[in-house]
Amino acid sequence: MTTHLGSNRDERIGTRRRRTHRRLRSAVVAAVAATGIAGLAVSCTPPPSGGGGDGVRFVDQVFPTVTTTSDLTYATAPDLQTGQPVQLELDLYGPAGDTMAARPAIVWIHGGGFKGGKKDAVVDAATAYARRGYVTIGIDYRVDPGNRCQDVQHGLISDPVELATEAARCSAAIAAAQHDTQAAIRWLRANAATYGVDPGRIAAAGFSAGAVTATNVAERSEDPGTVGDHLDQPSGVDVGLAASGCNYLPDSIDASDAPVSLLASELDRAVLFSCTVETAERAAAVGTPVQTLFHYGEPTHGVDLYLKYRSETDAAWTSFLVEHLDLAGA
């Protein structure tokens, strides 16, 4: 694993991986145009414990238990297939017995290839970070079970008309996940006082498709969407954490974006390593803080990659959160 940019291994990424990433990027760019869908290591002074347990708040799991509020509706949006309105729900987790009035929050986004998945998939991570003193939420978002994003990425569709159609469909699913997540962020800010959240300290985190979404939320806040009832609230986040994710439109990255931490494996076939590298390089080039947690010779993907390297990933992520949410002494 490396926590900086510029490893010589980056130069040895296969040309085939770069070619397939460029193919997906070109297809998505074309679809966006056609449809209008619009390693830095960190160090800081740890914050004090706030849970009465041993350890450091926001870093260690100092709270023994969490409280859970399930199935809160945060927005309604049209289904990607039928167009019928569907309710979007979230689960909210908080450190039990916490006396802090305004806590930082993390929105956790499940994976599933933009085809499926549910908020239950992030219970483990959401609970673990709530025990560290964060308010966390796990969200459902709209998916398209029939999308062929992987076929587009790997160049498996030869007919140009079909490719354009499937690329547009993929782009729409990616955009819906981003806009739904941003709706959840606006809902969280609108209800910050009710749930003891600091609206100025919110992160987005995810796995696989959720990692792509977390990266997009961090780096494409200029496209907030119109989902939900709290459009007066800001849609951006202060940090993005991504396990097997990237920004398929790296030219959208600029110096105003949120810092991102990118966990990735070199041999990932679902979200190509070349895309994650390009995302990191672009962020670094424009001056956005970026933490790279790269595992070379490793094929593991998404939540499985996170779980395989959980100890070091959590150490890096909590340090990154403390640094960029300005939690030292909070």
- Which spans of ≥5 residues are poorly predicted at pLDDT below 50? 1-45
Helix content: 25-40%
Number of strands: 8
Question: What is the overall silhouette?
Answer: globular
Domain count: the total is 1
Q: What is the average per-residue confidence, as pLDDT, rounded to a whole number? A: 88
Trace the largest sheet across and list its strands.
Answer: 1-2-4-3-5-6-7-8
SSE sequence, one letter per element: HEEEHEHHHEHEEHEHH
How would you characterize this protein structure?
By secondary structure, the protein is an alpha/beta fold. The chain has a single domain (8-324), classed as Alpha/Beta hydrolase fold, catalytic domain (Rossmann fold), CATH 3.40.50. The protein is built from nine helices and eight strands. The chain has an eight-stranded mixed β-sheet with strand order 1-2-4-3-5-6-7-8, with helices on both faces. The chain is globular and about 60 Å long.
